[in-house]
Amino acid sequence: ARNVVNRGGSFFEYNLTNDEMILVENNLFDKYLKKSAKLKEFNEYIEEYIINDSDKSMFELMFSFSKLYSIYGRDASQSFELKLRIKDNEKWVRFIIDCYTASSQKEVIVLIQVQDIENEKKYVVDSISGFDRITELLNAHSFKNEVKVLLESLDNSKCHTVLNIQVDDYDSIIENFGSSVTNLIMKDIANQLKAV
């Protein structure tokens, strides 16, 4: 479980034990969802966008399935595709619901990723063009090529620096919070570097 990949959609982290939303990164939906939303409010929020009544039932069923697995002490991950109406446009999205028990807090956490399927082609193009899809920095292959070109055209009158940045407790972050949260951290670090 916890293998959600951020693809530029919306990301929600919900604490099932305390019945409150603890993280909202909304890049897809046009309406605001408060960070402290309860489960009922979150369901109503998503259902506003779902076009077909049968899809509403499927959304509720999949979410309940993940909750049951976690209550009985097992991680669960479900994904399904629905057609939504966002800003007067119909759009196919993929929901990934990832449910697990946080080992440090003994609380049940539900990660909900909503991916814009139409935008997936963009990420394929980005990876072919040499950029990491999470950080939007050069990927390893492109970085090596850039360094090679730089070294070949090195001007001794200029100073060049290479940074090797290691994130403390990286493995622990993945284990306790999952790859989705880790991706958000990596994206934030990249944004701070780009701002320098």
Q: Please, could you describe this protein's structure?
A:
With 196 residues, this protein is an alpha+beta fold. It has five helices and five strands. The longest helix is centred in the C-terminal third of the chain and has 26 residues, at 170-195. The protein starts with 9 loop residues before the first strand and ends with a helix.
Key terms:
five-stranded antiparallel sheet; 5 helices; alpha+beta; 196 residues; disordered N terminus
Short description:
39% of the residues lie in helices and 24% in strands. It is an alpha+beta fold and 196 residues long. Strand 4 and strand 5 form a beta hairpin.
The secondary-structure class comes to alpha+beta
Distance between the termini: 35 Å
Major β-sheet profile: 5 strands, antiparallel
What is the general shape? elongated
Give the total of beta strands: 5
Rg on CA atoms, Å: 20 Å
Residue windows where pLDDT falls under 50 for at least 5 positions: 1-7
What oligomeric arrangement do these chains adopt? single chain
Provide a count of the helices: 5
Strand content: 15-25%
Order of helix and strand elements from N to C terminus: EEHHEEEHHH
Strand order of the largest sheet: 2-1-5-4-3
Mean pLDDT over all positions = 75
Residues in helix, %: 25-40%
